[in-house]
Records
---
Amino acid sequence: MKHKKAVLAALVTLFLGVTGFAEAQQNTLLPVSVQSMKTWLDSSPESPVTLIDLRSLLECRDAKIAQAVCHSCDTQQDDLFALVPKENKLIFYTGNRLADSKCAVIDQALAAGYKNVYRLEGGFAAWRKEGYPVVSEKRTPRVLAHAVIPRNLSRWQKQAKNPLVIDIRQAEDFTPGHLEGALNIPLSRLHLDYAQIPLDATLLVVDEDGTQSFLAASYLLRKGFMNVRRLKGGMNEYRRRTP
Amino acid sequence: MKKYYSCVIFWVAICSFLIFSGQTFAQPQQARCLTCHSDASFTSGYNASTHGHLSCSACHTGIDDIRRHSTGETKSNPVRCASCHSSVAAAYNTDVHAVIQNMTCVDCHQKIHTITRSDQPRKISIQEKCVRCHAPDDYAMMGHGRAVLAGNPDAATCTDCHTLHGTAAMTGATENEQGALREAYTMRCKTCHADPGVAERNNLSTRIADTYDQTYHGKVLQVGHSQRVAGCADCHTGHNTLSSDDPQSAMHPDNLYGTCKTCHTTMHKRFVSFEAHPGAVKGKTYLALHIAEVSMILLLVGVFSFFWLHTCLWWRRAYLDKCRKRQAGFIEDTLAPHCRDEKQVQRFPMSQRVMHVLLILSFFTLVATGFPIKYSETAWAKVLVNMLGGPHMAGLFHRIAALVLCALFLYTLWLSIRFLFPKWQWRGWVGRLFGPDSLFPNLKDLQDIKGMFLWFFGKGPMPKLDRWTYWEKFDFLAVFWGMTAIGLSGFMLWFPGHFSYIVPGWVINIATIVHSEEAFLAAVFIFTVHFFNNHIVPNKFPLEPNIFTGRYRVEAMREERPLEYERMVAEGKLESMKREGPGLWAQLFASVFGLGSLVLGLILLALIFWAVLFY
C-alpha cells in the first residue's frame, strides 16, 4: 500500500512536471516556415502579424521583408512593443541563423506576455531563396573588398600598413575567442562607432561565418577608409583551417 | 495591281519605321537626358557600350513628365535588369550573392553605362571579375586559376564549378543542402577529371575519378549520403588544387595531417598514409593493396571453385537418385509437413535455433545495407537504400546488425570453449576437439570428401556421415575466419581515426578490400552453397526446416547421418533424443520464415550477380 502511494505520487509529479514543461515550452519561440509566414502576411488584417528583423540596422535597411520593422538584438528600448496588440503574432527573423532567446528583444517580447511568438525557419535567407520580394530602405552599394584567406592572415598582418582587425561579432561571441589585437565593433553599432577607427589603418573585417563582413567592409569603404579587406569565411573558417 | 503595290509599299514603310524608330527616337531623347546627365560615362562611353543601342528610358522607366523630373519632383523607377535579362534574374534569385549578400547586378557589372564585352578570353574575363572581391590568392594563384591565366582551355574558371548566376550558398545551408552541394560539386569535378582527353592533355591520371568512387567516401556519396563524407573539395580545400609537391597544397605531405583532421578529429599522424585514390598515380607502387587484392581473389576463386563444383555434382547425383526412387515408388510426391504424432529426433536445442534466427536477421540486414555501398554505381543501390529508410538509417541498421553478429560470434566462441573444457576440465580436450560431436575438421572429413566425390561419379556409395558433415564444419569455421576478417575490417572502417593509433592509414585501404571481398564471399557462399546443401538439394527442396523446428524424422537421421544414428543406438541414447513432432505454429514459422529468407536471399543474390555482370 505504501509503495502504491509512492508510485502514485511519482506519477502525479511526473505528470505535473511534463505539463509544466509543456507550459514553459509555450513561452519560447515556435518555428514557422517561410510558406506559412507568407500566408499569414497575405491575410494580415484578419490575422495580424508583427514582423521584426533582428539583424543590424545596416543589414535591415540594406534589404528586408517589406512589412518588417528593424530592431537589432541589442536595441536598448523598454517600450518596443507598447503599440503592438497582445493578440498579434510576433515573428522574429535573423540572417540565416535561428533567432534564439539570447536576444534581448525576444526576451522583452516574451516578458511582455505575447503568446504567439515565432521565429522564421532559415531566416531572411530562406525568404529570399523562395524568391519573395524584399525592399531596400537604404542600400549600401557594395565596393570591391578583397578577401584574405585564413592561411595568409599572418602574411597580411606583416605586410599591411597599420593593420587593424575589426571584429563585427556581438561581444558575447567576441570575448571567448578573437584574433589578437582585434577591435570589437558589432555590426549593429558600426554606423554609430565607425569614427573610433583610425582613418589611416589598413582594416581587416572579421565576422562569424563570412556572411556579414562584405557589407561591413563596403560600408567602411563608403565612409572613407581607403584600404579594407575581409577574412574569408570569418572566424568559423579561421578556426577550421588553423590547427 | 496598282492598289496591291501601294499596299505593299505602305506596310514596308510602316515596318521600317517600327524597326528603326528605336534608333531614331533614342537619339534625340538621349540627347535630352544628356543635357542634365552630362557625366563623361554617359556622354562618351555609353554609345559604344553593350547597351548603347538602348535609349535611357529603356532602363530608367517611369519618367512621364520630363519637366517634373528635371526639377527633381519625380524620380525614375528602380532599374530592373530582369525586364530584359529574365532568365538570368530567375537563376540569380537563389544565388548566394543575392540570398546572403544582397548584391545586385551592378555590384559585379560595375560602370554599367560603359560596359562592353571583354577582349579577354571568356574564362579569364570571368576570373578577373570574381577575384575583385574573392581572395585572389585563394583561387587565381592556385591550380585551376593559374592554368586559366596561362591560357589552358581545359582549366576550370569560377563559373565552370559554381555556375554563372546560380552559385548555391554553402554558408547557412542545412546539412542536407550542404550534402546536395557536395554531391553536385563532386559531379562537376568528375565531368572534367573523368574525361580521358582532358586527363591526357594535362598529364593527369585518368583514374582519379573512378579510384575515388571505389573508396568509402566515393561509394557513400554515390548512394546519396553526401552529408557525412568527403567530396573532392573537402580534401582539396575548394580552390587549392595545387599539385601535392607544392608546399601550399593541402595534399602536400606537411599539410595532409591538417587536411584530414578537418573531419577526422581523432586521428594519429600515421593516418595520412591512407590512399584516397588507390591506384590512381602513375608509376607509384601499391604493393600492400595489390597483395591484399590478389589474396582475396585467390580465396574467392579457391572457395567457389571447390564448392560450386561440389554443389553441381551433388545436385546431379541427388537428382538422379530421387528420380530413380520416385520411379520405383519409394518416395511420396508431397511437400506437406509431417504429422505431429510422429516421434522425431532432437537435433538443435532452442538456444541454437534462436541464434540461427538472429544470425539470419543480422546477416540479411548486413547484406541488404552493405551491398548497396559495395555496388553503389548500380541502379538498384539507391532504390534499396531508400527502401531501408535512406542512407543514414541503412548505415545505422548495418552497424546494429554488425554488433548483433559480433555478440553471436562471441557467444559461439564461449560455447566452443565450454564444449572443449566442460566444467573447466582440461583433460581430454584433444579427444573432444577431434571427436564426433566436434565441429572441428578431422581425418574422417577428408575421407568423407573423397567418398562424396566417388559417390558423385557413381564409383561408390555415399559415405556414412556423422553428426556434423564436412560442409557444415566449413560453414561453422568460415564464420570464425569471416568474422575475424570482416569484423575487424568493419570496425576499422567504422572508427578509422581511432585505429590510426594502432595501424597506419594504408591499412584502412586494405580493410576496405578485405571487408568488401569477404562480404562478397560470405553472401554468395551462403546464398548458393549453403542454400543448396541444406535446402535446395533435391531430397530437401524447398526447405529443410529442422534448424527452425529443432527436430527431424528418425528415418532422415538414419539416412543422412547413419554414423550418428548407429552411435546413438549403440550407446542407448536414441530414445532419450526423441521428442514430439513440432507443433503447427513451429511448422508454420519454419515454413514462412525459412522460405521467406530463402526467397530474399535469392533476390539479393540476383542483385549481386546483376552488379557483377553488368557494372
Note: Chain B touches chain A at residues 93-94, 98-104, 106-107, 131-138, 169, 171-172, 174, 237, 257-258, 261-262 (CB under 8 Å).
---
Amino acid sequence: MPSLKIKTEVAELGRIFAAVDELGSQNNWPDDFIFRINLVVEEVAMNCIKYCHMEGVSDFEITMDPQDDVLTIEIIDAGRPFDPLMDAPEADTDSDIEDRAIGGLGIHLVRTMTDDMRYRREADQNHLTLIMHKPS
Amino acid sequence: MQVTTENKNGSLVIVTEGRVDGSNAPEFQEALKDAIKEGGEKVILDFEHLSYISSAGLRVILMFAKQLRRENIAFAACSLIASVKDIFAISGFDKIIPIHASQKEAMAALG
C-alpha cells in the first residue's frame, strides 16, 4: 500500500503522478481510470499544497490502497479544519462565457469522479477519504 | 507541455502537446498569451496531443476563452482525447467552447 509523504510544494506533483502511474500499471488499470486517479489526487493535493503551505505546514500524507477493483485514497494533513464536502464553493458549470465564474472546478471534478468522499477531523488533522471504483 | 502555433487558411491553430497540470499551468497561460500576440480573427485550439489536464489548466483555458470573446475572436477546440473530453463536459466547458472532432471540422464551423 503506497504511502507518500509529500512536501507542500508544487514541484512534488511529479512524484505523485509517478506513484499513481506505477500503481495503475501494477494493477493493469485502463488508461482512462489512471487519468481520473491522477486528476483526483492532483486536485486534493494542490489544495493541501496551497493552503497548508500558507499555514506553515510543510508536508502531508497520501495513501493509496487498491483492493480488487476499488481504490481507497486517503489524504491526511495538519492544516486548519477544512471539509471539502461542506466548505468548498459550488463550481459554476452553467453560466454564459462572460459570466462564468473562475474557480471551484477542482473539488467539483473530485466530487464527480469519486464514488464516495468522506471527511473527518481527528487528532488535529484533516482526513479525507476518497473511494474510486474501477469502471467495469 | 509544449504549445506551437500555425496559420492555416486564415485561422490561427494553437496546438498543445503533453500534460497541463498545477505545476506548469502558469507556463501554459504565458504560451497562450504569446500565441495570440499577432492577433487573428479565428482561433482553433487543437488538443489532439493534450494527454492530461486538471483544473489548473482548465482555469487557463477559461480565462483565454473569455479574452477571445472580449476581443471578438471566433474560437473552437478540436480533437480532444476521450478522457479530456469527459473533463470538459463535467466542467461545463462544452457549453461555452464549441468542440469539434477534427481540425478540419473546426475550420469549417468557423467559416
Note: Chain B touches chain A through 23 residues (CB under 8 Å).
